[in-house]
Amino acid sequence: MSQAGVLKITSGNLPPAVPLQFTGDDGSTSVPAANNENITSGFTTANNTNGIQTRASGSTVNIQLTNRLIGSGLTVDTATSNIIMFSLAAFPATYSFQFYISGRETSTGDGVAIVLTGAAKTNGATTTIIQSPYIDMKTSAALSGVVVTFTASLNTINLNITGVLGTSIAYNAVGTYVTM
Question: What's this model's pTM, rounded to 2 decimal places?
Answer without folding.
Answer: 0.84
